[in-house]
Write a structure and sequence with these properties.
Blueprint lengths: L4 E6 L5 E8 L20 E8 L5 E4 L3 E3 L1
Antiparallel strand pairs: 1-2, 1-3, 3-4, 3-5
Amino acid sequence: MVRAKVVLIETSSGRQLPEPVTTIASPVPVGALRIRLPEAVKPGTYFLRALNGRGEDAARSADFEIG
């Protein structure tokens, strides 16, 4: 999914956080993606959503906790 945009979504509200937003620039190992979170991200349950070049949903991660 090279060139997919990856965004962070708050699970409870469905709200997309304004950052981090990361674009996949090269192939990565399956199941691996490292994103640096800004300190403004509050503890809670989140998931990652990948958007294709047209801004359409391409993939969704499992929910995970940030503490």
